[in-house]
Amino acid sequence: YYETMNCPSGLIYNAATDRCEKRKNPDAICDREQPCMNGGQCYQTGKTAYKCTCNGAWTGERCETQLSSCATNPCGP
C-alpha cells in the first residue's frame, strides 16, 4: 500500500524528505550552483544573479561569515 501525494502547483513530492518542494530548474543558478551556505535561502534576481537570505547566525554575500556572539546576543549596555 502506498498513497499518492498531491502537492500544490509548482511543487513536487520528494519521497526522501516526505515533503512537497520547489521544482528544480537545472538552468536556474540557485538550483544549479546552490551558492548560499549554512542554510541560507537563495533567490534568483536575474539570469546569472542571485541574492542569499541568511539564517540568524550568518552573514555575507553567500552566508559564509558567522556573526560574533555579541551581534546575535548583545554583550552589555
Give descriptors for this structure.
77 residues; alpha+beta; Laminin; two-stranded antiparallel sheet; 2 helices; flat
Integer-rounded radius of gyration: 17 Å
Count of discrete alpha- or pi-helical segments spanning 4 or more residues: 2
CATH architecture verdict of the domain at 26-72: Ribbon
Shape: flat
Order of helices and strands: EEHEEEEH
Annotated CATH topology of the domain at 26-72: Laminin
Superfamily (CATH H level) name of the domain at 26-72: Laminin
Q: End-to-end distance, in Å?
A: 61 Å
User: Describe the biggest sheet?
Assistant: 2 strands, antiparallel
> How many individual β-strands?
6
Looking across the biggest beta sheet, what order are the strands in?
1-2
What percentage of residues falls in helices of 4 or more residues? 10-25%
- What's the CATH first level of the domain at 26-72? Mainly Beta
Domain EGF-like: 26-64
Protein name: EGF-like domain-containing protein
Keywords: Disulfide bond, EGF-like domain
Disulfide bonds: 54-63
